[in-house]
Design brief:
The longest helix has 19 residues. The protein is about 45% helix and about 15% strand. It is α/β, with parallel strands linked by helices and about 400 residues long.
């Protein structure tokens, strides 16, 4: 494990910690004004698809776009300034009365609506697949009620939009069938605070020559309780590795408690609670190997590459499942390792041996980190989003 890393900043102003008046003022100061609407601030979709994007647009020097985000209880107030907007991005927002009123106002003033979604949850034809992928009990009628209602409402929101944005080409192809003007890819990126602290963590590891102590630590950073099936892709190989190698431990961060095949080694598993995203970067930086297993479903193969680039940015090697996004992000064997279901044993052993050789480890992860800080930098989202929205500005 890597130690003696810099502490997270003492005070982090979350990107969603601002008043509506502040956000409106910033947005209306731009040549073009874009409002993002989302149900309520959270640590997943809102952070990546709304807060990070809005913050980037408002801080890139010379940008013509300015943006603001608005949530449930702000939509009716937002309706009053619709005539001053150039576009509204409906970010995974289920259809309802307040959104309907906003849509009607936008249509009356010719303001285009663009749907943004980062998962395959906008078509009820995939509801059963989504439930299965997330491990939902299909014998429980309430689960069917929840997922058909949620996905149906998202589809109704999508139907009111002219175009769409999303995280990768596969999701874009799915969305394109539902919108008149097609779908554009606007990738997930780090935000300014996250990237700055990741740079500090990386610099500390480089300065120490990637000095480490204790067992090799393999980290799994679980975002939601639904990741049990994903973890099961790697847990048998992890268990076999721990059977063979006494100098390896596992760190699990988040909601996962079902260890599956790894249960006999529970005493060698360190659990950490779900934490603030900046603190999470330190936890990722401390482990030598980050794993991103995904069960192979149509839902999971639409996932983005963030599990890779957040680890790469702090100089941690990743072993990940194949998906179109990860295949595009990872130069296999150079910036990380991609593993098919039957390749996890070999990939994990290779990663452990790599971590035991600081020079070889540094030779791979340091360039990979620089690539991550360039490709997924906080400001890199501004250009693809501007490119995606400009046709709507011209039409308006």
């Amino acid at each position: 494990m890597f130690t003696d890393l810099p502490e997270p900043p003492r005070e982090v102003k979350d990107l969603w910690d601002s008043s509506m008046a502040e956000r409106v003022g910033t947005m209306l100061d731009g040549q073009h004004r874009v409002a993002f609407v989302y149900r309520t601030p959270d640590t997943s979709t809102f952070r990546y698809r709304v807060a990070n994007t809005v913050d980037a647009l408002n801080h890139v020097p010379g940008a013509r776009l300015r943006a603001g985000w608005f949530c449930d209880d702000e939509l009716r107030a937002l309706s009053r300034i619709v005539p001053e907007l150039d576009a509204i991005v409906v970010a995974r927002y289920p259809y309802g009365a307040a959104l309907r009123e906003l849509i009607q106002k936008a249509e009356a003033h010719g303001v285009p609506l663009i749907f943004d979604c980062d998962d395959l949850v906008f078509d009820v034809g995939f509801a059963e697949l989504v439930m299965s992928s997330l491990g939902k009990d299909q014998d429980v009628n309430a689960e069917w009620d929840v997922w058909f209602a949620y996905m149906g409402r998202l589809n109704a929101s999508l139907a009111a939009c002219r175009g769409a944005t999303t995280t990768n080409a596969l999701l874009a192809s799915r969305l394109a069938a539902h919108v008149e003007h097609g779908a554009a890819v606007v990738p997930n990126v780090m935000n300014r605070t996250q990237q700055a602290y990741s740079r500090e963590l990386l610099d500390a590891k480089v300065a120490s020559g990637f000095r480490r102590t204790g067992p090799i630590s393999i980290g799994y950073f679980s975002g939601t309780p639904s990741h049990v099936r994903d973890f099961a892709v790697a847990s048998p190989a992890l268990a076999r590795l721990l059977d063979e190698d006494d100098d390896v431990s596992v760190r699990i961060v988040g909601y996962l408690d079902d260890l599956g095949a790894l249960e006999p080694h529970r005493e060698r598993v360190q659990f950490q609670k779900f934490m603030h995203y900046v603190e999470l970067q330190r936890s990722i930086a401390e482990v030598e190997v980050n794993i991103a297993p995904l069960s192979h479903t149509a839902f999971n193969i639409c996932k983005s590459d963030l599990k890779f680039f957040e680890a790469a940015a702090v100089g941690t090697w990743t072993v990940a499942s194949h998906t179109p996004s990860l295949d595009d992000a990872v130069d296999d064997g150079v910036t990380g390792r991609l593993a098919k279901a039957h390749e996890w044993d070999a990939a994990l052993r290779e990663a452990v041996e790599l971590a035991r050789d600081p020079r070889a480890y540094a030779g791979l992860v340091a360039p990979a980190a620089e690539n991550a800080h360039s490709r997924w930098s906080w400001d890199s989202v501004a250009e693809p989003l501007t490119r995606a929205l400009e046709p709507y500005f011209r039409a308006r």
